[in-house]
Specification:
heterodimer, A: alpha/beta, Rossmann fold, 5 domains, 7-stranded parallel sheet, 6-stranded parallel sheet, 26 strands, globular, B: 3 helices
Chain lengths: 820, 224
């Protein structure tokens, strides 16, 4: 495996009218040398061929060489994060294989693959298999996995940045460790968009113990034009809000130009609203408008993707469901509605835009309220400086480990000591303690260490050779059903009464509706008829008044990097410097902020106090993102209430937070310092938030992944009913009868790390300790305060007793009911 | 601890904060939906749910029996979650518990989960629904609009109410009176979950917090 013959590749490139880029050649040669690595570059720059070329050249050498080539078995595994991408990838890889004259079969194996095709693939594996992390895990759960992967030489992980930082990424790390054990010379290549922590991303993919891989940088990042849709000179921006539809006229002007457009929103509900608003404004565009988000039926989505590629659409309104899919269907224009939230995300979305005549891809940002203009300017600056966010990989997820061990037990079985060694070669479990390992083994074999608590439990058992194997075929079948549930939320199907599938929707939304209620979904106005067996039956509704489903996932906080840039721009504004057009448009508003109070800046924490009819408001602006602010607000309210019993309302956004109370003690800098200190942070946070309630909610995913919830077989809704219990109930039962359960512990840890962003919170507090505190008493809500005041989702933190809370809530409910 | 009195038919009943009913004129306790042995059903299916709930549920019932000293206990269906035939430990736990209260008459209305209960034949006086006692009709499944026989009690729904106000929210088990003629009990078992009951005209819901019972809906004209 030293030199490869690049002639066929070069010839095929030439026939296409291309020329191999130097990074592509570098990747081919590194592959030929038997190395692993990570290729990163902007979207659409030919990463796929950089990774695919090496195995192709090697395959050609084999075909022309020994009889070894005729041995059946998968040579190359191509992992894609989204099964929707598998089809396009297959086409591209197949084209290249045919182009160089390699008679390889390139097939896909995802949840969509028909069982007949799966059977055939198992008997007669294709040389290249495109699959998802879940389907790879499933392949490892068959007893012939080692035979199946005997010829494997290379694994290519597409869009690794999408998997990094998620439990699916951890699942893939574990599968790769298994494959490396079967195939010690296995090469792993990752493809990634630009990230702030590429070295860590590569180390996570290759395993920390591996030799350093090759980090190959693709073509220089394409220039990116980030523009904002500014209002007419006379037009005014709303100070708060989240829809941005006030700028719809400007968007429609933009869309009136020829060519196709992708309009990205941050949440599915925004997507639904924008789709409806565009349709209402321009009903003549009916045929040319599409809606694409993760809840919409796959077939419908596919049709929209195909239509987009064919140029049938003027505009497709989309969420992150279309963030991926690098190599297919570039559009002429990209619009981002609402805060970009992060530079990496904005750049990726902009990358969906094909080359414009000047060779620059551009994105038009539509702010949903005034202050988002700063974020747009901040994103442009960060991009120009080459700053991109990092994505941190997860560690020690015992739920994923438990699932993986059951997978191995369902496959050929596993032996404990060598498997522990294998698990520890992954980044996620490099520091796995013997105790945690033993606990996980106990969990899958006996239920838990409290023996008397788990009679009659059988899932995995040790056979006479000491191998851990699945207890019986029923358990094996059930486990295979549950692999691949890492991402899925409790989803309900939405169907027409007379048949016809529309998509899936979070259960939490449907349960709040009653039959007869009308809601907006998949761009249609639907009336809920009834809910049965995890299916919501609907019919088309004529009525206008609608609820819009709120999906989780729309609460992504502003990235720390972007937040720092926002602060930098505000500091410049404080000095009277308004360079960017967005900042100039915002100038009148920021001047008001400066006159009424002050502008925040790095090293200066702005605190505002205002009195209104509602009570005393305290606004603090640390610019640390919504999640950290929620935590900080709760912490501060709790610490205040420790001094004097009180009840506070809390609101938070990406810039700061608000506490509202009937009375607020006098707070000078000397009072604020201890309230914002890092001392006792974790303890105070846990006692202040309804931590157990949060952990209980977090447990939902953990229970699903670790196999504590029965998923049921398709179409078996009824007979499975006996085994249904909510994850909350399971959490309560475990917490009560097996209090040292490590998965309960993990739920608490995940709440701190993910729901509260404890690292960012801690960092923010340490910045505050260094910062000057600027206190301002304001007569009215300032431009920074107003969006917080308008934030409708208010939390309440109370030091009242539980019984009083119930009595108060009932009192409020009755008051509400009395109203005419 | 504070309970709340309601009138059903001609009988005065006390709704207890533990989710049970005390019926003074007959010296009777009523509970519904114990679902004993549920965790075991999960474990035999390969889900690692720890045991403890069956014993805890029976202990809570024991505490109520000690406190109220009833001569009768009425169990309104779904005493076990699945047939005790496959669960010797469950059979043992239930018979031991029953032996500890030998002086109390226990009537169990058959619920949809109480199948193949031969092993528990002697523990309870099993009766098909509806079972008449002192002018009230005991069901497991709440009868439709109105019971043809007269005022009724039932379980099966596992009613809970969701309270939400000012960003605060709670979910509590509840008694539900769909009308003056019927009363549905919350599930008494610990591992039972619940079915949210929305407000409706003429219906009253009584959430219980373990310490207190509250009346949630004022129903005009309803007897208090």
């Amino acid at each position: 495996m030293t030199a490869i013959d690049e002639t066929p590749l070069n010839a095929w490139f030439a026939a296409k009218g291309w020329q191999p880029a130097s990074f592509q050649k570098a990747a081919w040669q590194a592959h030929a040398r038997g190395e692993s690595g990570l290729i990163h570059s902007a979207t659409g720059s030919g990463k796929s061929l950089a990774a695919w070329g090496g195995p192709l050249a090697e395959g050609l050498g084999e075909v022309n060489g020994s009889e070894k080539s005729r041995r059946p078995g998968v040579r190359v595994l191509w992992i894609t994060p989204l099964r929707a991408l598998a089809g396009d990838t297959q086409r591209n890889l197949r084209d290249a294989a045919e182009g160089v004259g390699l008679p390889w079969r390139v097939e896909t194996r995802t949840g969509d693959t028909a069982s007949s095709a799966r059977q055939r693939q198992r008997k007669n594996p294709p040389e290249a298999l495109i699959t998802t992390p879940e389907s790879l895990s499933l392949l490892l759960s068959y007893t012939d996995a080692d035979r199946y992967f005997r010829q494997l030489t290379t694994v290519i992980v597409d869009e690794w940045h999408e998997l990094l930082g998620s439990k699916r990424g951890v699942q893939l790390e574990l599968c790769l460790a298994r494959l490396r054990r079967l195939q010690p010379r296995l090469r792993t290549w990752g493809l990634s968009a630009t990230l702030g922590n590429l070295d860590e991303a590569m180390a996570t993919l290759l395993g920390p113990g591996a030799h350093r891989g090759q980090l190959i940088e693709g073509s220089a990042p394409r220039p990116l034009r980030i523009e904002a849709l500014l209002p007419e000179a006379s037009g005014r921006f709303p100070w708060a809000g989240h829809l941005g539809t006030h700028l719809i006229d400007g968007v429609i002007d933009h869309l009136s130009q020829p060519g196709s457009c992708l309009l990205f929103t941050n949440t599915r509900s925004q997507a639904e609203i924008w789709f409806e608003s565009l349709l209402r404004a321009r009903s003549d565009w009916l045929e040319g408008l599409g809606l694409h988000h993760g809840s919409i039926d796959r077939e419908l989505r596919r049709r929209i993707e195909a239509g987009l590629a064919a140029g049938d659409f003027r505009c497709v309104v989309a969420t992150s469901s279309l963030d991926l899919g690098v190599d297919f269907s570039p559009v002429d224009r990209v619009i981002q509605v609402g805060s970009p939230k992060g530079v990496a995300r904005l750049a990726q979305r902009a990358g969906r835009c094909g080359h414009q005549p000047d060779g620059i891809s551009g994105v038009l940002c539509v702010p949903s309220h005034a202050l988002e203009l700063v974020e747009i300017a901040a994103a442009r600056r960060a991009w120009a400086d080459g700053d991109v966010e990092a994505r941190r990989p997860l560690r020690l997820c015992l739920d994923v480990l438990a699932q993986h061990l059951v997978t191995l037990a369902t496959g050929g079985g596993f032996e404990a000591p060598s498997t522990l060694e294998e698990i520890r070669t992954t980044h996620a479990f490099a520091d796995l303690s013997k105790e945690a390992w033993d606990w996980t083994l106990t969990f899958i074999t006996r239920g838990g260490p409290v023996l008397e608590a788990y009679p009659d439990f059988h899932r995995v058992a040790r056979d006479h050779q000491g191998l851990f194997r699945i207890a019986d075929r029923r358990q094996a079948a059930r486990h295979r059903m549950s692999i691949g549930t890492i991402t899925s939320d409790a989803a309900m199907q939405v169907r027409y009464q007379g048949g016809g599938y529309l998509g899936t929707i979070e259960e939490s939304f449907i349960v709040r509706l009653r039959p007869g209620d009308v809601f907006l979904f998949a761009g249609r106005s639907l009336e809920l008829l009834r809910v049965r067996d995890l299916t919501a039956y609907v019919r088309r509704a004529g009525r206008r008044r609608q609820a819009v489903p709120r999906w989780q996932g729309g609460r992504l906080p502003l990235s720390g990097m972007l937040a720092d840039r926002v602060l930098e721009l505000l500091a410049e504004a404080a000095d009277g410097q308004y360079r960017e057009p967005e900042m100039q448009a915002l100038r009148p508003l920021l001047e008001i902020q400066r006159q009424w109070s002050a502008l925040p800046a790095p090293g200066r924490l702005l605190v505002e106090r205002t009195r209104s009819r509602e009570g005393e408001h305290l606004f603090i602006y640390p610019f640390a993102g919504r999640l950290a602010h929620e935590g900080l607000a709760t912490l501060l309210a709790w610490r205040l209430a420790q001094r004097t019993p009180a009840t506070f309302s809390i609101a938070a956004n990406d810039y700061g937070f608000e506490l509202l109370g009937a009375e607020m003690p006098a707070l000078q800098e000397t009072d604020l310092r201890p309230l914002l200190s890092q001392e006792g942070l974790v303890d105070d946070l846990l006692s202040s938030m309804n931590a157990s309630e949060l952990a209980r909610r977090q447990f939902r995913d953990i229970a699903r992944i670790a196999g504590l919830i029965f998923q049921g077989y398709p179409g078996q809704g009824k007979s499975a009913r006996q085994l249904q219990a909510s994850s909350g109930l399971i959490f309560d039962t475990i917490a009560r009868y097996d209090p040292d359960h490590r998965l309960v512990d993990q739920a608490r840890r995940e709440v701190l790390e993910e729901a509260l962003e404890i690292h960012r919170l801690r960092q923010t507090l340490s910045h505050i300790e260094q910062a000057d505190i600027h206190l301002a008493e304001t007569e009215r809500f300032t431009p920074l305060a107003f969006p917080l005041w308008a934030e409708r989702l208010r939390n309440r933190l109370s030091s009242q007793s539980w019984e009083d809370r119930v009595a108060r809530m009932i009192g409020q409910l009755e008051k509400a009911a009395d109203r005419p | 601890m504070s309970s709340l009195s309601v009138t059903l038919g001609r009988e005065s009943l006390e709704l207890l904060p533990e989710g049970a009913i005390w019926w003074p004129s007959r010296s009777a306790l009523m509970v519904a939906d114990l679902h004993l042995g549920k965790a075991g059903v999960f474990r035999r299916a390969g889900l690692a749910i720890p045991e403890g709930d069956t014993r805890a549920t029976l202990e809570r019932l024991t505490a109520l029996i000690r406190q109220h000293r009833p001569s009768r206990v009425y169990l309104l269906g779904d005493i076990v979650h699945a047939s005790p035939a496959r669960d010797p430990a469950l059979r043992q736990a239930i018979s031991d518990w029953r032996a500890g209260h030998a002086a109390v008459t226990m009537v169990a209305v058959l619920g949809n989960h109480d199948r193949q209960i031969t092993a528990l034949r002697r523990c309870f006086d099993w009766q098909p629904e509806p079972f008449e006692a002192g002018g009230l009709w005991l069901h497991h499944h709440p009868p439709g609009a109105a019971s043809p026989q007269g005022p009724w009690l039932a379980g099966h729904w596992h009613p809970v109410v969701k309270l939400r106000a000012g960003g605060d929210q709670l979910r509590l088990p509840a008694f539900v009176m769909p009308s003056d003629q019927g009363l549905i009990l919350p599930a008494f078992g610990g591992l039972t979950g619940g079915h949210p009951v929305a407000p409706r005209p003429g219906q009253r819901r009584y959430p219980c917090s373990g310490q207190r019972v509250f009346l949630l809906d004022e129903s005009s004209g309803a007897a208090r």
